[in-house]
Amino acid sequence: MNKVNLSEKLALFSEHWHPHIVGELNGQHVKLAKIKGAFDWHHHAAEDELFLVVSGTMDLELRDQTVTLEEGEFFIVPRGVEHRPVAHEECHILLFEPASTRNTGNITNERTRDQLDRI
Amino acid sequence: MNKVNLSEKLALFSEHWHPHIVGELNGQHVKLAKIKGAFDWHHHAAEDELFLVVSGTMDLELRDQTVTLEEGEFFIVPRGVEHRPVAHEECHILLFEPASTRNTGNITNERTRDQLDRI
Asked: What would be the CATH architecture of the domain defined by A6-98?
């Protein structure tokens, strides 16, 4: 039962594409991540995923469109929808998704993180 | 499948203590609200509730402590825990909570809103 300051939590890590858990409620996780460059195309079979930009700009590439998100904007990727997050400069994001959500969804590679740190 | 700009959505309403739904995922709602003054003490029997301050300052009064939240800070009130949001000046907040969550929880009064608008 402590409040969470997003900036303070973001200052605790620097690695890109490495989400950290900062809150849990109703079986959902609140995560923070720093992203830069292009991630991998993937989808989550059973989880809708919310991306909220805390600072910076990101592109959320979908197969039929690219959604550009600025600070204070969010987008919900429905389950099953392929997506690829891309950030041309470092961008800080908040994710809200079921605790079961794996960062690389249906694919497994060197960026897959099955265990996330809580900070 | 549209992005949501928090500031643009907040500009669409002005009434205090009237949450509006701006997103839905995994059975949860993302809501925005403008608050000012003191709300009513209440709890949610089966829902954890996240308060994130988008702008301004709010106090989240609990029976044993008061948590002051500034912009960019959030707090999760666990199910069953009595709380009272208070804002001395108008404050804009984002709520994450199950779609079943009623704004006044276990109490019913003139502020109770069983149907919320989606904007």
From this structure: Sandwich (2.60)
